[in-house]
Amino acid sequence: MDVGIESINAYVGQACLDVNTLFRARGLDSDRVNNLMMKKKSVGFICEDSITNAVNAAKPLIDSLSQSERERIELVITATESGVDFGKSLSTYVHKYLSLSKNCRLFELKQACYGGTAALQMAAHFMAANPFGGRALVIATDTACTAVRMTYAEPSQGTGAVAMLVSQDPRIMKLEIGASGCYSYEVMDTCRPEPDMETGNADTSLLSYLDCLSGAYKAYKEKVQGVDLINSFNFFSFHTPFAGMVKGAHRKLMRENCELNPSEIEDDFLLRVAPSLIYCAQVGNIYSATTYLALCSLIDSASVQSPKRVGVFSYGSGCSSEFYSGILMPGSGQLLRQHRIDQALTSRYELSMEEYEHLLNLNSQCKFGTKNMHVKISDFESIYRKTFEGSGLLTLRSIDNYYRHYDWS
After folding, report:
1. Active site (annotated) includes residue 104
2. Active-site residue, selected from the candidate residues 48, 182, 239, 366
3. What is the mean pLDDT of residues 202-228?
4. pLDDT for the residue 197
5. What's the rounded Cα separation, in Å, for the pair 237 and 274?
6. Collapsed DSSP state (helix, strand, coil) of residue 175
7. Where are the alpha helices (DSSP H) in 178-242?
8. Mean pLDDT of the residues in the chain
9. Is 81 annotated in the active site?
10. In this predicted model, which residue has the larger pLDDT, 206 or 138?
11. CB atoms within 10 A of CB 347
């Protein structure tokens, strides 16, 4: 039975900031911009959170379904490290605002940036074991922590979500069920020990990512007979904290498994990896959703006229990782381009540094555990009119005794 991603879409925010502008304003070492390979980062508003991101990513997928098809969505999984409640799942709000059937499993899971892959694998195995067909909705959604100003982490942090419908009709990517290698262990590389804090050791995180890539691919090879890094995969899609990190990871993996010189490795990177980095370099790290933003970038950018195998590497701090493979289907690019992610990126409002600081200050007023809050559009009205007004996107309006109220802009 074929199982995999039937449709996929990304929400990349309504505003962005040029990374070079941020480097200059913060007095950061400009030589490190090239190492990041970042261009812009998506910036959230106080009227946005992980719930609005999730709904705005998923709604175009749901709108494309008939009513009877909507009613066959039997599972909704949200993956995030930006939850709004220790008990109540984001999926309950998502389920409500997408008007899905009440005959549905709803839950949320967390494992840093690996969460999106954990959700996808769980949904895929659910569908593989389901004799009645149907669909599962998986949404990886995250928002950047606002307490990282004046650090080198700030330029790479984005906001957004990726939604996927998983079914027995994988028109985007057919998963090769069982063809995966996992590699995980406890490490204190990055974490969010408090709602408004993201901390850790950047060097430890980099080394753990590289170690897990090697370990997960080795585990994959032990399961899949005859696999060859050069000949078995047409493309790669890696978790992308920043594009420069993926380039270094690809180089290390190639050196460990292939006899190629530096020039040949660079050519391979440009051919099989670079297409997946285009969107990530314009959005930044969106944590649980980043691996799948990279997949969207690959599908939108590469030519898939016949089935193509992609090697996917997912990493989440703490840590958990997996290398698995799927088959991109002919026509996947045409299906994805209907959602116009590239146009959404180019149409974002580009913030000045003063506007960026203003939005961060507003966002800090709505922390985890906020009991009561009313979003005052007047606090950012000029930007709101250029971004959300009339867009039909879901926005946060207020929090009343912890309960969140949303409306369509």
Report:
1. no
2. 239
3. 95
4. 76
5. 9
6. strand
7. 202-223
8. 95
9. yes
10. 138
11. 11
> What is the mean pLDDT of the segment spanning 204-216?
96
Two structure tokens written together for 255: 């050196």
Task: Give CA–CA dist 391/404, Å, rounded.
Answer: 21
Number of H helices, E strands in the chain: 15, 17
Q: Is pLDDT of 360 > 90?
A: yes
DSSP alpha helices (H): ranges in 27-165? 31-36, 50-63, 67-70, 90-97, 115-128
Q: Cα separation of 275 and 342, whole Å?
A: 13
- Between strands 235-238 and 308-316, the pairing is parallel
| Whether 96 contacts 270, CB under 8 Å | no
pLDDT digits (tens, 9 = 90+) for 372-386: 999 999 999 999 999
User: Could you tell me if residue 282 is left (phi over 0), alpha (psi between -120 and 50 degrees) or otherwise beta?
Assistant: alpha
- The one catalytic residue in 6, 48, 74, 81 is 81
Which residue has 């840093």 as its token pair?
112
Average pLDDT over residues 33-45: 93
* Alpha-carbon distances, residue 229 vs 130, 180, 254, 363 (angstroms): 33, 14, 8, 44
Distance CA 209, CA 225 (A): 25
Q: In what order do the strands lie in the sheet with 373-374?
A: 373-374, 394-400, 403-408
Q: Beta-carbon neighbour count of residue 272 at 10 Å? A: 21
Which of 16, 47, 113, 280 is flagged as catalytic? 113
Strands 40-43 and 4-11: unpaired
For residue 190, what pLDDT is reported?
86
Q: Which phi and psi (to 5°) does residue 50 adopt?
A: -65, -25
The answer to whether 47 is a known catalytic residue is: no
3-class DSSP assignment, residue 344 = helix
Report the distance separating Cα 324 and Cα 315, nearest Å: 12
Size of the chain in residues: 409
- Find the helix or strand (DSSP H, E) in which 367 lies: none
Question: Pairing state of beta strands 73-79 and 105-109?
Answer: parallel
pLDDT digits (tens, 9 = 90+) for 260-271: 999 999 999 999
Q: Are 330 and 219 in contact (CB under 8 A)?
A: no
Spatial contact of 349 and 356, defined as CB atoms under 8 Å apart: no
For 110-163, the pLDDT digits (tens) are: 999 999 999 999 999 999 998 888 999 999 999 987 656 767 889 999 999 999
Phi and psi based region of residue 361 (left: phi greater than 0; alpha: psi -120 to 50; beta: remaining): alpha
Beta carbons within 8 Å of 304's beta carbon, 6+ residues apart: 328, 329, 330, 331, 332, 333
116 and 162 Cβ atoms separated by less than 8 Å: yes
Q: What is the pLDDT of residue 200?
A: 81
